[in-house]
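Title: [Solved] Rhodanese-like protein 3D structure

Original question kept below for reference.
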Amino acid sequence: MKRELQHLTPKEAYAFLQEHPEALFIDCRSEIEYWFVGHPVGAVHVALVEAPQWARNPHFEDQVRKLAGDGLHRPVVVICRSGNRSVTAGEALLAAGFTHVINVVHGFEGDLDEHHHRSSVNGWRFDGLPWEQG
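Solution (posted by the thread starter after getting help):
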């Protein structure tokens, strides 16, 4: 049976996380983005790619598997900056055997506006969902 990545808006993902406290919330951005740009409250950092080389983390799936603890059936919600890396991360988790993986569309910062700024069109922060910095 082929598993498919589920896609939820930030508000939908937040509601899902509230309704499913057993879900694992993964922020797959780089460590620099996670700490200095900010991150959703409750998100655990596991980088899919890391600066300065922006190389793929070969241990990503294993690190998430270890955090999941309960096994591959625990829901996993994945967020990144704009919803692109989290698709790659989510598909990698499905390929690794996870059964319920959700991508947060628009990510933490959302799409660029006409001035090339983020967090002004859509995304977790734009929607006013809980986040912290540092």
